Amino acid sequence: VQLVESGGGLVQAGESLRLSCAASGSTFSKYVMGWFRQAPGKEREFVASITWSGGTTSYADSVKGRFIISRDNAKNTVYLQMNSLKPEDTAVYFCNANGVNWGQGTQVTVSS
After folding, report:
1. How far apart, in whole angstroms, are the C-alpha atoms of residue 99 and residue 109?
2. What pLDDT, on the 0 to 100 scale, is given for residue 92?
3. What's the CA gap between 25 and 63, in Å, rounded?
4. CA atoms within 13 A on the CB side of 99
5. What angle do CA 101, 75, 102 make, to 5 degrees?
6. Which regions of the chain are under pLDDT 50?
């Protein structure tokens, strides 16, 4: 499966962004999808995940209550709504399918 992220950009603290990840392949609806991020000089870390049906979501403590992951299986797309952004959210955000496939990443920069 190929994954293409979009929606990153430069925002001020407190603002919102919505990331999208478009997937190729007819079996998208069967995948557990996730978002990860990597800040400069740091390890890639888990942000959020969603099961194939969208019925179960999971979040890192650092984003819980601010970020929302969702998916549209008809569009083969997973989203990450990011609200109340903080400078520490600055990172390259990656989409992941089933823990195996990665997108190229999209840069999110939050200024204070």
Report:
1. 25
2. 98
3. 29
4. 1
5. 10
6. none
Could you give the CA distance from residue 30 to residue 71 in angstroms, rounded to a whole number?
A: 12
Beta bridge partners of 109: 10
pLDDT in tens, 68-83: 999 999 999 999 999 9
The string of pLDDT tens digits covering residues 98-110 is 888 999 999 999 9
Nearest to 92 by CA among 104, 82, 105: 105
Cα distances (angstroms) measured from residue 37 to each of 27, 53, 55, 74, 75: 24, 23, 23, 26, 23
Task: Find all residues with CB under 8 Å of 83, minimum gap 6, and list them.
Answer: 16, 66, 67, 68
